[in-house]
Structures are given as C-alpha cells and as structure tokens.
Amino acid sequence: MSKPATPRALSDQEAKAVLRNIRVSPQKLNLVAQLIRGKKVATALADLEFSRKRIARDVKKCLESAIANAENNHDLDVDDLVVKEAFVGKALVMKRFHARARGRGARILKPFSHLTIVVREQAAAQA
C-alpha cells in the first residue's frame, strides 16, 4: 500500500518549468524575467532571442521547456499560451577570498538563482 498521490498544484490550463542553480545573481535574473511576464509566448521568445543579456539564453530554454510541458504533458494549445508567472528565487552563494594588500583579504560572493516559469492557456477571445 502506498499513500495517495498529491493533487496537482496548478490548474488544468497551466504548466511550469523550473531551472535550478543558475550561476547569476537573482537581481540580474529578475531583470530578464520582467521582460516576459504577462506576454504571449511567441512575443516572449522573440524578446529573449534578441536580448543582450547573457542569461537570456538560459531563460529562453526554460520557457521552451515550459511550452513543451504544456503541449506534451497537458495537451494545451501552444498558440494560446501566455506567461502567467516568471519568478526568481535565491539559491546557494559560494564564498570566495581575494588577497589584498597588507595581508588583508576581501570576500567575493558568487550567487546562484532558481527560475520558475508558469505558462497558462488563455482563449483567443480574452487576448
């Protein structure tokens, strides 16, 4: 006997993808996540394609994964998908040491982040 499966946290019209331990600060990642919040996925993919930020490539891959999850796992229509949520969380921070003058040391912080993208199917009449 096993315990019953936990119910799905998202509604039936939603799918998500999570990208963990990205080597960028949450503040910089949030700037790119703001670009795509609330947009249709075709527009969001185009914005990420032509963004000059280095991390935009990884965000684009995560968005494509969320689209694929929606299409393959939940049978949602790709043309009607909208980015409902794109939120950033803090992950670990590597602490490093940089030698300075007179025997002192300076601390260097190398932060990591998590990215979660939730896409939602909206009817064409609402968009």
UniProtKB/TrEMBL annotation:
Keyword terms: Ribonucleoprotein, Ribosomal protein, RNA-binding, rRNA-binding
Signal peptide extent: none
Pfam families attached to this UniProt entry: Ribosomal_L22 (PF00237)
InterPro entries to which the protein is assigned, alphabetical: Ribosomal_uL22 (IPR001063), Ribosomal_uL22_bac/chlpt-type (IPR005727), Ribosomal_uL22_bac/org-type (IPR047867), Ribosomal_uL22_CS (IPR018260), Ribosomal_uL22_sf (IPR036394)
Record GO terms (molecular function): rRNA binding; structural constituent of ribosome
Domain of life: Bacteria
Keyword Ribonucleoprotein: yes
Gene Ontology annotations for the cellular component aspect, listed alphabetically: cytosolic large ribosomal subunit
SUPFAM superfamilies: Ribosomal protein L22
GO BP, one annotated term: translation
Family under the similarity heading: Belongs to the universal ribosomal protein uL22 family.
Subunit structure: Part of the 50S ribosomal subunit.
Role according to the record: This protein binds specifically to 23S rRNA; its binding is stimulated by other ribosomal proteins, e.g., L4, L17, and L20. It is important during the early stages of 50S assembly. It makes multiple contacts with different domains of the 23S rRNA in the assembled 50S subunit and ribosome. The globular domain of the protein is located near the polypeptide exit tunnel on the outside of the subunit, while an extended beta-hairpin is found that lines the wall of the exit tunnel in the center of the 70S ribosome.
The protein's name: Large ribosomal subunit protein uL22
Organism: Salinarimonas soli
Lineage: Bacteria, Pseudomonadati, Pseudomonadota, Alphaproteobacteria, Hyphomicrobiales
Gene: rplV
